[in-house]
Amino acid sequence: MKRALMILAIAGLGSGCASMGPPPGTTDIVDQQKVDLVNAWARRNSVQVLWLNMPLRNVPAQATPAAEERKS
């Protein structure tokens, strides 16, 4: 139970700025590296992770495949 509360507390602290949205000229994409890292830690420690909000990272808009398709 303590592990679950600790994970929820950490997740809550990390989501404080998530609602602000990306700055102009950028877009948010799922941070797959962080997802993989947390999921691997969870497997090693027999913990189940339930992603309510996937972690995002900010990238320039022209670096995403969707932005390239819109240009065409």
Description:
Strands 1-2 form a two-stranded antiparallel ribbon. The protein has 72 residues and is an alpha+beta fold. The chain is 46% helix and 14% strand.
Which characteristics define this entry?
72 residues, alpha+beta, 3 helices, 46% helix, 14% strand
Largest sheet, in brief, is: 2 strands, antiparallel
Please state the average pLDDT score.
80
Our measurement of the CA-to-CA distance between the termini, rounded to an integer number of angstroms, reads: 52 Å
The helix tally amounts to: 3
Order of helices and strands: HEHEH
**What is Rg?**
15 Å
Strand content range: 5-15%
- Give the helix/strand class: alpha+beta
**What percent of the residues sit in helical stretches (DSSP H or I)?**
40-55%
Strand order of the largest sheet: 1-2
- Beta strand count: 2
- Uncertain runs with pLDDT below 50, 5 residues or more? none
Briefly, what is this?
The protein has a domain at 24-58. The chain is built from 3 helices and 2 strands. The protein has helices at residues 2-14, 32-44, 65-71; strands at residues 26-30, 56-60.
Q: What is the secondary structure topology, with strand pairs?
A:
Blueprint: H1 2-14, E1 26-30, H2 32-44, E2 56-60, H3 65-71
Antiparallel strand pairs: 1-2
